[in-house]
Amino acid sequence: MSRKLRVGAAQLGPIQLADSKASVIRRLLNLMEEAHTSGCHLIVYPELALTTFFPRHWRDSTAEIDLWFEREMPSSETRPLFEAAVRLQMSFYLGYAELAFEQEDIRRYNTSILVGPDGRVVGKYRKVHLPGHRDFRPNYPFQQLEKRYFDVGNLGFPVWWHRDVIMGMAICNDRRWPETYRVMGLQDVELIMLGYNTHTINQYHAESKHLKMLHHHIVMQAGAYQNGTWIVATAKTGIEDGCELMGGSCIVAPTGEIVAHAVTQEDELITFDCDMDLGGQIKRNRFNLPITVASSTTV
């Protein structure tokens, strides 16, 4: 009998700089309730889901920058998400800015976590492929300061055994690199959760919205097919702080097909019943991948 997991990609409309974290969490909770009503077992939120995409804003003050970061998870503000997960028996992926104290120093990461239906953190991932620049560039329409605000992720690309599925995580620009999928693919990953924020304007060269969306989809479709895995990709979208985020949230099957796609630039839930045995046929029959033992096996 096939293993089925009903998943939801919880796209968010814009989060403005002035929006409170409490108001954002209410939106996340509304989407989780909708996912529960739709029969979902897992909901995937975007990258940096608790704040505006703050790397577009230059700040000199470390104190100002750190207001965007979470020092613990759950915190008093985010605890309602964890409590709702327990009440609804829902797992969730959440992207956020993490402030960590490591090796007697403060580190800042673009982070995602997987939380189980018991409200406990199953796994953590820190973004590896940081785009953008460190210096202020006044001629740009907006800044992309991930290299200034974040340290490169130091956890690699682990996978976790959760809900009878081997799951992995990635964030935004990671999706453009084949190594992201292959490292997890060699650990027999069956579902990759991926949150992102992508602007419609390319700072470095002119590129149409059509091409940006094409490239966004094609890298995930290739990664899904070549590694026999489902991908749940969830965006923040709409006009945020005067900048347009392109959206394009979707669920990609191991066949490379897009089986569900968002159609708005607002808060929107898309769902699909994923057959977790589909990817194994592709891994073993099409590509004969040399599968290694999963690096993490947290339930």
Helix content: 10-25%
* CATH class category name: Alpha Beta
Spans of at least 5 consecutive residues whose pLDDT stays below 50 are none
What best-fitting shape do the alpha-carbon axes yield?
A: globular
What structural category do the secondary elements indicate? Answer: alpha/beta
CATH topology: Nitrilase/N-carbamoyl-D-aminoacid amidohydrolase
Provide structural commentary:
The chain has 299 residues and is an alpha/beta fold. 24% of the residues lie in helices and 29% in strands. It has a single domain, classed as Nitrilase/N-carbamoyl-D-aminoacid amidohydrolase (4-Layer Sandwich). It has helices spanning 21-37, 62-66, 79-88, 146-149, 178-185, 209-227, 278-287; strands spanning 4-11, 42-44, 91-102, 105-115, 121-126, 159-162, 165-171, 191-197, 230-240, 243-246, 250-252, 258-261, 268-275. The strands form two sheets. Strands 6, 7, 8, 9, 10, 11 and 12 form a seven-stranded mixed β-sheet that branches. The chain has a six-stranded mixed β-sheet with strand order 5-4-3-2-1-13, covered by helices on one side. Strand 3 (91-102) and strand 4 form a beta hairpin. Helix 1 (21-37) runs parallel beside helix 3 (79-88) and helix 5 (178-185) packs parallel to helix 6 (209-227). The longest helix is centred in the C-terminal third of the chain and has 19 residues, at 209-227. The chain is globular. It starts with a strand and ends in a 12-residue tail after the last helix. The model has no long low-confidence stretch (mean pLDDT 94).
